[in-house]
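In this supplementary section we document a worked example of the pipeline. Step one takes a protein sequence of length 190 as its only input; no multiple sequence alignment statistics are reported here. Step two produces a three-dimensional model, which step three serialises into structure tokens for compact storage. The input and output of this example are shown verbatim.
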Amino acid sequence: MAKFPNTTLLSRVEAIVICLMRTLLVITLVCVAAGCGRSTTHHDLASNGQGGGRDSANADDEKLAVIEVPRPNSGTYKTERATELLPSTLKRSTGVSRDDETYTKWKNPTHGFRVYVQGDGAIETINVLNETGSGIEGLKSALELSRGMQFGNPLSVLLASESAGWTIPPKSEIVDMLFQPSIQIYVIGK
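The serialised model returned by step three reads:
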């Protein structure tokens, strides 16, 4: 501890508090400059009438956006409410090419993986190490790898497909497997 000549205990404590406050301010400024100060608030889905979660892009009808699916038991949504909102959120998804930049350049907010379902139902998974897997087994492998690195944060999984909607197999099976409190699902939509 630094010495403070000719000061009382109270003024030493004040100096330490000021030093700590300055340090926190610097850390906050560095974090904001690095982009980790992004808002993670959720919109009330019932009030916005969209039936979906937070968009990571502007709500422009012409642009694709990554849409956050309500996560069960997340603190924002109880399991019943998230389950109720799931169909309307998934309806907002749209078909995209596997090469679409909204899919390929997605910045995962935590860690996890991407899943792409082709028109013929073939499943391609790109895991946290950027390795490609196929089928349900590739999806299970990516899930297992990501869970091993979870450390308390929810996994983030982006679902994309050549066609809109997630209510028919194998897409509905993927949603059923991933719709749980420890996984934040995202879909691409407008």
